[in-house]
Amino acid sequence: MRRLFWVGVGVAATVVVYRKGRKVVRQYLPSSVAERAEKAAHDAGERATGFLAEFRETFGEARARREAELTAALLAEGQQDPATTRAARATGARRPSPAGGPAADVDPFDGDEAELGYSF
């Protein structure tokens, strides 16, 4: 929370300095120099915005790949993806019985919790 406060203070100070600086520049410099400086600042802002957008996209893709790698590494052989299991629980789906008969009346996801001693 403290860091967020100081980031906010920094942003506010930057805005104040920027606005006051523009007023000072317009007072003391010829208009052509001021226009060039303003254009250069605008171009730098556009480059920074483009860089941040590209960085966020690249970071998101890398994070998704790494999450998939970790999920694959942590799942036991033959274990379903956790998203599939969560979706099945949410819909109340039942797995068919192993003998190929009708679906079991007991929720298969809750049946082994007492045996295992833990639950997800």
What does this structure look like?
The chain is mainly α and 120 residues long. The chain has a domain at 1-74. It has five helices and no strands. The mean pLDDT is 80. Residues 107-120 have a biased composition (Acidic residues). Residues 75-104 have a biased composition (Low complexity). Residues 75-120 are annotated as: Disordered.
Task: Write out key terms for the chains shown.
single chain; 120 residues; mainly alpha; 5 helices
Low-confidence stretches: none
Q: Radius of gyration, Cα only, in angstroms?
A: 29 Å
* Shape call: elongated
Number of strands: 0
Total helix count? Answer: 5
Q: How would you state the average pLDDT, rounded? A: 80
Largest sheet: none
Structural class: mainly alpha
Q: Separation of termini?
A: 31 Å
Strand content: under 5%
Order of helices and strands: HHHHH
The share of residues in helices is: over 70%
Region (Disordered): 75-120
Biased composition (Low complexity): 75-104
Biased composition (Acidic residues): 107-120
Briefly, what is this?
This protein has about 120 residues and is mainly alpha-helical. Helix content is about 75%, strand content about 0%.
Produce the secondary structure layout.
Elements: H1 2-28, H2 31-74, H3 82-91, H4 108-111, H5 113-116
